[in-house]
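Bit of a strange request maybe. I'm writing a small parser for structure token strings and I need a real example to test against, not something I typed by hand. Could someone generate the tokens for this chain?
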Amino acid sequence: MKKSWQDDLGARAIQRVRLRLIPFLAVLYFIAYLDRVNVGFAALQMNAALGFSSSVFGKGAGIFFIGYFLFEVPSNLILARVGARIWIARIAILWGFVSISMMFIKGAASFYVMRFLLGAAEAGFFPGIVLYFTYWFPARERARAVAQFSTASMAAGIIGGPLSGVLLSLRGVAGIDGWQWLFLVEGLPAIALGVVAFFYLADGPATARWLPDDEKAWLLDAIERERASSPRSNAAALRTGLLDPTVWRLAGGLFLIVTSGYGFSFFLPQIVKSLSGASDLAVGMWTAVPFTVAAIGMITVAAHSDRTGERRWHVAACAAVAAIGLAFSSIAPTPTTTFMSLAFAAIGLYSYTPPFWSLPTAFLRGDGAAAGIGLINAVGNLGGFTGPYLMGFIRDASGNFFVGLRVLATAAVLSSVLILTIREKRVPVPKTVPVPLP
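Reply from user aminoacidic:
Good idea to test on real output. This should exercise your parser:
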């Protein structure tokens, strides 16, 4: 079929937006995710230096998500009011200062307080970006956009692991311990990027001076037609975002997979250390492997989900893959097969995200979207407290990580089952370049 000028115009608009926004936001998310999980690498030295047990570490690592939970929905509502440019900049600058301050912790109490404050500072960033994408991308393009943005979390594992290993090797330089160097160096970029965000981002297509008028008109018309054609007339209501049963099912599914995901990611360096007995630098290198594999899987799954227009089964299948990998890693006969199973689990854990976020953005609008997306992410990320806490507690009680991995596998199975109970409105797959919905 011959493409019309409208098809070409839409393709150009989407590509321009993609190139303008996603690389910068992905770099910002890379730093956010790195500052969130670098405590897992710091633990290789910090736990011994400060006398932390696995339970103390797991509780402190997870308490980040309590602060995240409490401030998530208010943060997203404020972003919808004041605009992404100001609010994303504020979030990045504040979390950068808090992340650097982690180098001054002296014991369990200060560890808990600083992790809570880091979660409160970062609250609203990821769901804010998901909401922000609804201003720029038609629904058929969102899973791919979220996937490209979310690969930054994979990059944080791929690059952040070796980088953290190098920073840990600075132990004693200028009288600062290696784990303190890690928090200092990895916190600084957030402050700088927050300042850049204030000047670089636009709140939406209408205020984007870098977008040609014809492409701007196409995008505004495409997004508005989608909103007008929503099958749920109350999708923009704040009440819908907070009380809709589908929103809460999605929140439950996310909670369960996040329990698995952060139990996995926060303890992965320690698991690899126990399997290999390698140096901190080598552990950093090895932990990059599961994230590299997961990044490939994430892009592949998101592209297939966008191409077929199907979301629910993609999400459920990813949770099942995570469960299989985690379960087998707990019974694998050799360290090599355990590590390979963990890499397989990472594919499911991280490929889950892009098609998942296409489910709520398919029916929520306006204040309903701001509240609903914030609520789903806030409740879901409570799993970020539950997973590390359980792993630390079980590790101290059992003496190994394998029982904890089975618990994480069970959570992933339950997530898969819960997602399958959601009724999805299937979006037709376009024959050509995406155009506005009729």
